[in-house]
Amino acid sequence: MKKLLAVLMALLMVAAMTTAMAEGVTLKVAGWDITTTPYYTAIKEGYEAANPGVTIEWVDLASQDYNIKASTMLSGGDTTDLYCVKELSDMQNWAKEGLIVPMNEMIAADGYAMDKYAGMEACYVALTDGQQYALPFRADYWVMYYNKDLFDKAGVAYPTNDWTWDEYAAIAREVAEKTGAYGTHYHTWLSAVANWAVCDGVNTLADGKYEDLKYFYELYQGLEDDGVCMSFDELKASGLHYSGAFAQGNIAMMPMGYWYVSTLIGYIKDGTASMNWGITAVPHLDGVAAGSSFGSPTGIAISKHSANQAEAWKFAAWMCSEEGAKAIAATGTRPAYVSEAVASVMAAAEGFPTDEVSNAALLPTAISLEWPIGEGVNEIKTIVNEEHSLIMTREATIEEGIAAMEERAAEFIK
Amino acid sequence: MANSQAAGRRKMTALEKRNTLIAYSFLAPNFIGFVVFTLIPVVFSIVLSLMDWSGGQNITFVGLDNFRYIFKDFSFTKSNLGIALKNTVFYTLMTVPLTLLCSLGLALVLNKAVKGANFFRAVFFFPYVASLVAICVCWNFLLMKTGPINQILNALGFTMKKSWTSSRDLAIWAIIIVSVWRNAGYYMVMYLAGLQGVPGELYEAATIDGANAWQRFTNVTMPMLTPTTFFNSIMMVISCFKIYDVVAIMTQGGPGRSTKMLVTYIFELSFGGEGIATSAQYGVASAVSMVLLVIVLLVTIVQFRGEKKWVNYM
């Protein structure tokens, strides 16, 4: 009886192995919010259709614990082949500890084009050895959302992609005055108010010099004083989220990341919001090219523990290529790969505004990194955010806040 | 005979062994939980305070470097640890006496045969069992720039131009008010239990001796309640030093660093937060935890030393 059982078991194992071989390769890829984010499925379906025999299996990790969980899996030798990169600082850590594989040889061997990411690929170069450790597949940049109905009501022309910050402030005041609605809306983040200073591609928020933020804080405080936008104080105390705020329909303009497009399309579909809207490029300063913005990428890296590194590279390369980008773009998400073809897929997403200005805003002139990478950047980021909240609550004047940022950041500037 | 008894003590009989094992097996579920989720993490945290670890596989011994890092340029107005320490101590010094006063006052009033005493006891206990998030969000609205509290204060001649949580000076008071309001009901129940234990003869004797209500309170009630006050103050001091939840919901440590507490700082160092990028420094975070441990330990020791002087066990 026992012998029979053993033989049966052996047979079963052989059967299992042969079916596994027949099925080909299975790549396990770690990401977050897999079930609620449509592009993961789009990528899986797109890649499996183009590469028969390969199965993509997403490993869903909780969003808020992603960095900790992924780091633990990588250092614990988990067999997951690829990991999405949520935080740049984590990727730097993984590279430093040798948990992920440098891609330079594979890039060179394939002659892989790295010039299609508007510079976003640069943040996946490790500080330690200068090698490329990940590719970007998603890159959200900031655009201006506007409510066409309010502009129509005010009889003000829609903004265009080549406007300046001064023009923006004037338009916000005009629409507010003529409609009684809010001319613009700033979410409480540093990025919504002052990050614009990095759009010139020269300044960064980690360079220890914050004089360039002054213009944007003054612009904001002027608008807040005139009641053109909601006050930071009340936004903080009430915890009003930007997504609901703009959807209420009493806000004419709002600078926000591209990720809000799919939210807004969803709101209009399910009836939460009902307005005509469009996007434009964010305004620019004199001397900075129109259409310049800032953003952050999301990337994909290959684990050292992957048993199929060649297959994993093929998948990562596809995911970040024009083909992968089109699959991502069709779900209303902005891929890192930029081209006319990808932009037209984004424009064709159901519910996306059809006007020319909105379509043109899909191809920004330049995207700067929201935060650069480097030693001490995390400390500086914390400091700048803390002082930002003091300026925004008027507990410190703009000059005092900027002086405090510079004084406290100096310790971490190498 | 004596020998055999001694031998018996050394060697357990099969029955005794079985009984002991049964006893241990009843203790085990709780004890295993304690070991896995409390004891091991505490010991690990002590070890971690001497290590550099960011969650990966590299964990290196760095001696006292973490402590040097947090105590570097120590000042109550500039360095993170100093500010967190100052805020936590201020919060504790304000919250503990205020809560004691409120809870004692409520207990005294509700200990009398007031009509509906039970109803009001439940009402005052309610904040303690209500969802903290809901409470904090409601208070955030009450303390808003144009909220009811500011409107009342403005009508009384104050000039309140800001939400409490947006002001460097008032934000910590918002946290204190919510904490006192929330916890007073709980400590009230403790005091009520204490008041039930005061023998009626003492009041009778005091009345016969000609003591008025105030004298009865200071000479009978207060001394008889000292064990409760002692227990309440110890529990409260420890929980005040651990304050995190109310801050996380109401102010996130802001504006600036004006409500950054020790535990808020520990959390930021370990897990970050909105606008906080300095995370995954588990060694440094553990070092701050050790500072917190030492402070709570010292305060508790001092309280227990003082116990003999003013606590009256009859």
Features:
heterodimer, A: 414 residues, D-Maltodextrin-Binding Protein, domain 2, 18 helices, 8 strands, 44% helix, B: 314 residues, MetI-like fold, 2 domains, two-stranded antiparallel sheet, 13 helices, 2 strands, 71% helix
Q: Please provide the ordered H/E string of secondary-structure elements of chain B.
A: HHEEHHHHHHHHHHH
Largest sheet of chain A: 8 strands, mixed
Q: Briefly note the CATH topology name of the largest domain in chain A.
A: D-Maltodextrin-Binding Protein, domain 2
Spatial order of the strands forming the largest sheet of chain B: 1-2
Give the proportion of residues in helices of chain A: 40-55%
Q: What is the CATH domain class of the largest domain in chain A?
A: Alpha Beta
Given the C-alpha coordinates, what overall shape of chain A results? globular
* Count of beta strands of chain A: 8
What does this structure look like?
The complex is a heterodimer of chains A (414) and B (314). With 414 residues, chain A is an alpha/beta fold. Chain A has two domains: 183 residues, Periplasmic binding protein-like II (D-Maltodextrin-Binding Protein, domain 2); 197 residues, D-Maltodextrin-Binding Protein, domain 2 (3-Layer(aba) Sandwich), CATH 3.40.190.10. In chain A, 44% of the residues lie in helices and 14% in strands. In chain A, β1, α2 and β2 form a beta-alpha-beta unit. Chain A is globular. About 1% of the residues of chain A have low confidence. Chain B is mainly α. Chain B folds into two domains: 67 residues, no CATH class; 241 residues, MetI-like (MetI-like fold, Orthogonal Bundle). In chain B, 71% of the residues lie in helices and 2% in strands. Chain B has 13 helices and two strands; from the N terminus they run ααββααααααααααα. In chain B, α3 packs across α13, α4 packs parallel to α8 and α4 crosses α12. The longest helix of chain B is centred in the first third of the chain and has 35 residues. Chain B starts with a helix and ends with a helix.
